[in-house]
Structure formats: structure tokens, C-alpha cells
Design goal:
The chain is an alpha/beta fold. The protein has one domain: Alpha-Beta Barrel (TIM Barrel), CATH 3.20.20.190. Helix content is 30%, strand content 21%. The strands form 2 sheets. An 8-stranded parallel barrel has the order 1-2-4-7-9-10-11-12, surrounded by 5 helices. The chain has a 3-stranded antiparallel beta sheet with strand order 6-5-8, with no helix packed on it. α1 links the parallel β1 and β2. About 11% of the residues have low confidence.
Length: 290
């Protein structure tokens, strides 16, 4: 039960994925112009549970992140952002924390989240409960922002400044697959890579998995050769289908173990590195890519 409160291109995943009105002053560094220094976007940086930071979205943007995650609950016809039901706050809506600030920023930056950066920014939306009802309301809301969003139109992809990808409650898949026109895409699982008739990247551009369900290695010793080969095979399979890969539940405490895992993820070609430590991942990626 619900809680009580432009040109058609090839598949979305084949394209590299990568301020707001009233935005806090620090957000200016993230790309709304005015002569402020702006971080180069980090195409592999994903902010896990982004809404738990002091300034949702803006903190991630100030560190150059190109993907953020928001968990949502459907409450009295509104989509509220929170990790648990006890944390629900009517003022913290998907529109107020993410959709409206992103729209204002895209307008200010002449069509992109980061000025001059044309790869879409990923908004991963994790539906916590009531997948069908929550997705239908989300679809209704996204249509008000369609000019900035990537979309799928009768099987053809149009890239926009922002690409919503739906994760979480798996029951959202059915209503999404039934749509001929939609402004969101689906977050698949590792099982989808083994499917005999896999969904196309135009529907499932992203494959996500829990690291600890597939790998026992947590970075404190040598990466077992068999596990390294498994990781590379998973990523190669996904990339052969124009799908991107992300793992959650990877080590995230600062230190050699986390760095070791992050090095292996990047070496294998994993597309999105998951973290709660925005500054830590930014420092690592800029050093790694530098």
C-alpha cells in the first residue's frame, strides 16, 4: 500500500554519460558561469544516497560528479526523498531537491548540467516501495521537465541534458516496458547479462549489482585471479551490449583497501564508481586520470 504522505541517435548507453534558483553560494563553483572556477566533470563519479549530504545535488556538482542517486517514496501523491520512512519530510521532494535545480542549471548553462559538457547527467532514482504507483507518478512529473530529459520514442533515443534511470522496486519495470514514449530508463541487474533474450540498451542502459553478492574480495589482500577475470567478463559483456556497469556496496572507508578496489574497478572499465565520500572519490579520480 502507498505510504500516506531533439535528433534521434543510437542507443542511450552507446553515448558517454557522463545552478538552481536559490542555490547555495558554493554551488556556483559547479558550473553556472559568472567567472567562477568550475571542476571538470568526472564521468565515472556516482554519488550514492546523494540526498544525505548537507546540500543534495549541489555538493556532488561542486566535486564534478556526473551521476547522483535519490531514493523516493510515494506519499499522498507526492514523491518524497528519503532513505527510510521515518526520515520522510514533505519539504524534501524529488522536484525541489533535484528536478527543479537541474532544470534551472541546464537553462543557465545553455542546455547542459556542466557548461560546455554535452554528455547527459545521470539521475538514478531508486523507488523504495510501491513500484508501479510510484513510477506512474514519477512519469507524470518527468513529463513537465521533458525538454531537459533524455527520452525513448517508439524505440528511438533522444539524448538530453539529464537522463533519469529507475532503480529499486522491480515492479516498476512492467509499466515502463509497456510505454511507447518515456522519459526514463531502467537499471538492470547482473542477471540481465545472462538472459537469453536480454533487454536492449535503449531500455536498460545500466547494469548494477551488489559487489558483495558477486565478489568476496574487499581490497585488503591480492585480488584473486578468478574474481578479477569475472569482473572483466561482466564489464566486457555489458559493454558489448552498449550497457554501463555500476556496483554498490563496495568498500567506502578511506584507506588502501578502498583504493585497491577502486583501481580494479577502473582497470576493468566499470563506468560508475559508487561512493558516499565525494571529496575522496574526486581526489582519487583526478589523480588516477591525471
Amino acid at each position: 500500500m502507498p505510504a500516506t504522505r531533439r535528433t534521434v541517435v543510437t542507443t542511450l548507453a552507446a553515448a558517454a554519460l557522463t545552478g538552481a534558483v536559490g542555490a547555495p553560494a558554493h554551488a556556483a563553483t559547479a558550473g553556472s558561469g559568472g567567472g567562477q572556477s568550475r571542476p571538470a566533470p568526472l564521468r565515472r563519479a556516482h554519488a550514492h544516497n546523494d540526498y544525505l549530504h548537507e546540500h543534495p545535488l549541489h555538493d556532488a556538482l561542486s566535486h564534478g560528479f556526473t551521476s547522483v542517486e535519490a531514493d523516493i517514496f510515494l506519499v499522498d501523491g507526492e514523491l518524497l526523498v528519503a532513505h527510510e520512512p521515518a526520515e520522510l519530510d514533505p519539504s524534501r521532494t524529488l522536484r525541489s531537491l533535484y528536478l527543479d535545480p537541474l532544470l534551472a542549471r541546464v537553462r543557465a548553462n545553455h542546455g547542459s548540467v556542466y557548461r560546455g559538457h554535452r554528455r547527459p547527467f545521470q539521475l538514478l532514482i531508486d523507488i523504495k516501495t510501491d513500484g508501479v504507483a510510484a513510477y506512474l507518478e514519477l512519469d507524470r512529473q518527468l513529463r513537465h521537465y521533458r525538454r531537459m530529459l533524455s527520452g525513448c520514442f517508439h524505440g528511438h533515443i533522444r539524448l538530453g541534458a539529464v537522463t533519469p534511470v529507475i532503480s529499486g522496486d522491480r515492479s516498476a519495470r512492467a509499466p515502463m516496458e509497456a510505454q511507447r514514449v518515456r522519459y526514463a530508463f531502467y537499471d538492470g541487474r547482473l542477471d540481465d547479462l545472462a538472459a537469453g533474450d536480454p533487454a536492449p540498451a535503449s531500455f536498460v542502459p545500466l547494469i548494477s549489482g551488489n559487489w558483495t553478492h558477486s565478489f568476496s574480495w574487499l581490497g585488503s589482500d591480492e585480488f584473486p585471479a578468478a574474481q578479477r577475470q569475472k569482473l572483466h567478463t561482466l564489464v566486457t559483456t555489458a559493454h558489448s551490449r552498449s550497457q554501463r556497469v555500476r556496483f554498490w556496496a563496495t568498500p567506502d572507508l578511506p584507506g588502501p583497501a578502498r583504493d585497491a578496489v577502486w583501481h580494479e574497478l577502473l582497470a576493468a572499465g566499470v563506468d560508475h564508481v559508487n561512493t558516499d565520500d565525494l571529496a575522496g572519490l574526486e581526489h582519487f579520480l583526478r589523480r588516477y586520470d591525471g
